[in-house]
Task: structure prediction
Amino acid sequence: MAPTGTFLTRPELIELTGYSVRGKQVEWLRANGWPFEIAADGGPRVLRAAMLARMGGEPQPNQEPQLRF
Result:
């Protein structure tokens, strides 16, 4: 099953950027115009929805039950 968290995981960031060092990931994200924030632990955080939108993927459907009236 594919990860469905709000943010990309560390392995996904490594795959996206090609770098395992956080500073290099940040440099790559800035150079390539990716939106991100720096978390309290110093690592970049990229929203999964931003990655899916940019890469042409489809976000996972909402898994919450829908009420019918």
User: Anything to note?
Assistant: The radius of gyration is 14 Å. The helical segments are 10-17, 22-31, 48-55.
